[in-house]
Amino acid sequence: MTSPATTSPAIAASGLRKSYGDKVVLDGIDLTVPEGTVFALLGPNGAGKTTAVNILSTLISPGPGSGSIRIGGHDLTTDAQAVRGAIGVTGQFSAVDGLITGEENMLLMADLHHLSRGEGRRVAAELLDRFDLVEAAQKPASTYSGGMKRRLDIAMTLVGDPRIIFLDEPTTGLDPRSRHTMWQIIRGLVADGVTVLLTTQYLDEADELADRIAVLHNGKIAAEGTADELKRLVPGGHVRLRFTDPAAYRSAAAVLGEVTQDDEALSLQIPSDGTQRALRAVLDRLDSAGIEAAELSVHTPDLDDVFFALTGPAVPGRPGPANQPEEAVR
Fold first, then answer.
1. Whole-angstrom Cα distance, residue 267 to residue 285?
2. How would residue 324 be classed by pLDDT, with cut points 50, 70 and 90?
3. The whole model's pTM is what?
4. Which of 168, 223, 256, 303 measures 20 to 30 Å from 142, CA to CA?
């Protein structure tokens, strides 16, 4: 992941609203995405992720009462054409035309961007090579695998050299190898200074790629922060100590106080937020008593825990919305 840039945000939206009749899809959300970073929108189906992308990419208009929206420094309301010139969009459903070849799809995009014939062929060739599609370039796109179609889709998005890209669930339906290939592509884009706003239902994807993550629920942002910040929002973190000496196990239990004991495994579980300071405190108390554990492991909540805590009913072993913090990281 990248370090957030210090320049003006690539995307800045305040009070984003959208309703369809009585159905409120977005209820005044704020988004700020620094240049050259990945921002992930997480949320269950119907949370408003795609609607947010469609508004920010000028595909649909924001609702009445929405505040300021600036994309690439351009006001979306008064200068939508400039916004379109600065962005690229890859939606949930492929824009690839299966009846023509991969190269013809690329050249069609070049025509739409008003590139000259020579420039269009040069850009198409470079992107087909970059996305490992040269061998398949002369084949109908209908013969491509899901991963190949997704790579072609993003290659087509890059024909206009956008500096801001919206990726709406780009790896849905892909096999694990193709997903990891897509992650490498996204990392490469950001390394080149491109800003990516990503929607996904894959929590590991957000954890791997995103500098910041916002969790959408019922049209509002339930929490926003780095992956580590979000993981600290929910309970469940602990340090686990395992002993081989029963006497040391009993002594540690007495010294540490509030622990969960497993007499059969000779292990202790101590509540912890997983920080270095908390871990050092446990070790210092053991050292001062001359106790040594055979094994130590740190367990922290993952984004699955965050997702379930903020957006859905509790399931066995996971915290539910009733346990979510009063104040989310913003």
1. 16
2. very low
3. 0.77
4. 168
